Amino acid sequence: MFAMNLLFRSLPALVLSSLMAVGVPALAQAPAQAQGFKAGFVNTDRIFREANTAKAAQTKLEQEFSKREKELVDMGNALKSASDKFERDAPTMSESQRLAQQRQLSDQDRDFQRKRREFQEDLNARKNEELAKVLDAANRIVKQVAESEHYDVILQEAVYINPKNDITDKVIKAMNAGSANGGK
Question: Which residue range is the domain that position 79 belongs to?
Fold first, then answer.
């Protein structure tokens, strides 16, 4: 029993020493291989906020949709006013007038909701188109930076990133220089 106990207590030490004897050359090579690996990170949210092409796309969308948005706001305000007026006047209306007014308000509300939904769908579709253009331009520049500075991988999302590996500023500067020169 004592010999068995001694064996179990010394077994982890034996296994560890065996692994170290076999694994030391492999472990010694791992850092050398890791030193040749270069990873970078790019923050696409910052690109969408700070790059001139992203800002231009946002301005373009605001101009394109501002008229429809104003019409929707005006329509919503008119509907609210009509609804408030109905609430005040309803007690003095006849049953048929009240029902007709309710039907009319319901139809106006349904039309307003439909137009608001269509506006939101159109806006989202155009926003996605514009953001895709910005992302394509950013990806081209990321690829150029990666190739010129010999990166093995560029990540767009990470739990943690050392700031020295963040190339976002380089990408934004290159995008802004490209947009200032008339590039996309």
Answer: 37-180
In a domain, 96, yes or no: yes
Dihedral of the alpha carbons of 104, 109, 110, 115, in degrees to the nearest 10? 130
Percent of the chain with pLDDT over 70: 78
Domain count, the chain: 1
Asked whether residue 52 is domain-assigned, the answer is yes
Q: Could you give the CA distance from residue 13 to residue 103 in angstroms, rounded to a whole number?
A: 85
Please report the pLDDT score of residue 182 as a whole number. 56
Mean pLDDT, rounded, of the chain: 83
pLDDT in tens, 27-80: 344 444 456 889 999 999 999 999 999 999 999 999 999 999 999 999 999 999
CATH of the domain at 144: 3.30.910.20
Cα separation values, 90 from 77, 83, 109, 140, Å: 19, 10, 18, 63
40 and 165 Cβ atoms separated by less than 8 Å? yes
Q: Is residue 146 part of a domain?
A: yes
pLDDT value, residue 158: 87
- CA separation (Å) from 18 to 2, 12, 22, 27, 97? 24, 10, 6, 14, 94
Task: Determine the pLDDT at residue 87.
Answer: 93
Say if 102 falls within a structural domain: yes
